Amino acid sequence: MTILVTGGAGFIGSNFVLDWFKTSDEPVVNLDALTYAGNLANLASLGRDARHIFVKGDIGDRALLEGLLAAHKPRAVIHFAAESHVDRSIHGPGAFMKTNIDGTFTLLEATRGHWSGLAADDKASFRFHHVSTDEVYGSLAPHAPAFTETHPYEPNSPYSASKAASDHLVRAWHHTYGLPVLTTNCSNNYGPFHFPEKLTPLMIVNALAGKPLPVYGDGQQIRDWLYVTDHCSGIRAVLAGGRLGETYNIGGWNEKANIDIVKTVCALLDELRPDPAGPYARLITYVTDRPGHDRRYAIDAHKIERELGWRPAETFETGIRKTVIWYLANADWVADVQSGAYRAWVDQQYG
Ligand code: NAD
Ligand code: TYD
C-alpha cells in the first residue's frame, strides 16, 4: 500500500510526511513542484529512506499524474499542494487560480480516472483527502460563534476564494462521480519549517535579525492557532475514519489577537536568546493594514472530536515554545530559505 501526497515539501506537507513515518511504514509518493515555498531541506532527516519517493512536478500536469497513479497505485491521495499566502494572492492572484483551482481540477480528474479502473474492494477503500482552510468561511464578528462545518462560504481574499472554489470542486466530484472524498478545513498552523513570510516565523526571524516586527493595522485581528503536528494527526484521523463526502473542521481552540502572538514570541526570545540592546518588543512596528483583512477566524472542532475522538496534543503555550526553540536551533534552515527570491518578496511587501 502507498499514499500519494501533493505539496509534501511545503510547511504542513513536510511535517505530515515526517510524522507519517513515525507511525507507519507505508510508502509516500511526494509530488511537489518546489515553488518558492517548497523545500527539500524540510525532508533532509529522511535521508535516502526508501519509503519516501520524491517526484518534482506540477499537479496541473495530467500526464505526470496519470503515470504516477498507474505506477504506484496509491490507496489515497492527500492534497496539500497550493499557493498559500494571502498577501501574495493580493499582489498576484493568477498563480492561486492556476494551482488551487485548475490544479485541483486536474488532480481530481486524474484521480477519478485511476479510481474508476480499480477493483471493487480497492475502489471502496480509496480516499481523496483535500486539505483546506477555515478562511473559506470569511470573517467572524467579535462574539459570533466559531465556524462549524455548515457555516456559509464567504471567502474574502483571492487565496480564500481559490481554496473555496477547490472545496466546491471536491464536493462536486463526490456527488456527481462518487469519488470517495474527505475535506478538512483547518485554522492557522504554526511550527517547524514554516516559511518566514507568515506571521509567526516572520516575527521570530526579524526579531533575531534586529529588524522591525510589522503588525498590520491595529494588530487586533484574531486567528485560531494550531500546532502543525496536531493538524497532521487530525488529517490522519479523518483519513482513517472520516465519513465519505463529509467536511471536518480542525482547530486548537486557541483564539489570539495578532499583537498577542507577536508579544508572546518577543517574551520567549527575551527568555531564550536575550538581546543586549533591550526587549524584542521594542521592534514592534504598526504598518498599513492588509486590504480586505479578515478580522476574526475561529474553529468549532466539536465534530472531529465527537466522531473521531481527535483532540490537539499541544496547548498554545507548549506549541509556541517548541516553535521558537526550533527556529533558534535551525538558523541554517532559515538562512537557506532566505534566498534572493525571498528578499525580493520582503522588499515588495514591506518596502
Ligand atoms: P506552503 O505554501 O508552505 O506549501 C505548499 C507546497 O505546495 C509547496 O511545497 C509548494 O512547492 C507546493 N506547490 C505549490 N504549487 C504546486 C503545484 N502547482 N504543483 C505541485 N506542488 C505545488 O503551504 P502550507 O502552509 O504547507 O499549506 C498546505 C495546505 O494546507 C494548503 O492547501 C493550504 O491551503 C492548507 N492550509 C494551510 C494552513 C496554514 O496555516 N498554513 C491552514 C489551513 C490549511
Ligand atoms: P498570515 O500568517 O499571513 O496568515 P493568514 O493571513 O492566512 O491568517 O497572517 C496571520 C495574521 O497576521 C493575519 O491577520 C495578518 C497578520 N500579519 C501581520 O500583522 N504582519 C505580517 O507581517 C504578516 C505576514 C501577517
For the biggest sheet, the summary is:
7 strands, parallel
List bound small molecules: nicotinamide-adenine-dinucleotide, thymidine-5'-diphosphate
Q: How many β strands by DSSP?
A: 12
Distance between the termini: 49 Å
- The quaternary state of the protein chains shown equals single chain
Helix-strand sequence: EHEEHEHHHEHEEHEEHEEHEHHHH
The CATH class name reads Alpha Beta
Structural class: alpha/beta
Helix count equals 13
**CATH fold description:** Rossmann fold
- Domains, number: 1
The helix fraction, in percent, is: 40-55%
Shape: globular
Q: In percent, how much strand structure appears in the residues? A: 15-25%
Description:
The chain is of the alpha/beta class and 351 residues long. The protein has one domain (3-350): Rossmann fold (3-Layer(aba) Sandwich). The chain is built from 13 helices and twelve strands. It has helices spanning 11-23, 62-72, 86-91, 94-116, 120-125, 158-177, 199-208, 228-241, 258-272, 302-308, 316-329, 331-337, 340-350; strands at 3-6, 28-32, 52-56, 76-79, 127-133, 181-186, 188-190, 213-216, 222-227, 247-250, 255-257, 284-287. The strands form three sheets. It has a seven-stranded parallel beta sheet, sandwiched between helices. A three-stranded mixed beta sheet has the order 7-9-11. Strand 5 (127-133), helix 6 (158-177) and strand 6 (181-186) form a beta-alpha-beta unit. The longest helix is centred in the first third of the chain and has 23 residues, at 94-116. It is globular, with a radius of gyration of 20 Å. It starts with a strand and ends with a helix. The model has no long low-confidence stretch (mean pLDDT 97). The chain binds nicotinamide-adenine-dinucleotide and thymidine-5'-diphosphate. Nicotinamide-adenine-dinucleotide binds next to helix 1, helix 4, strand 5 and strand 7.
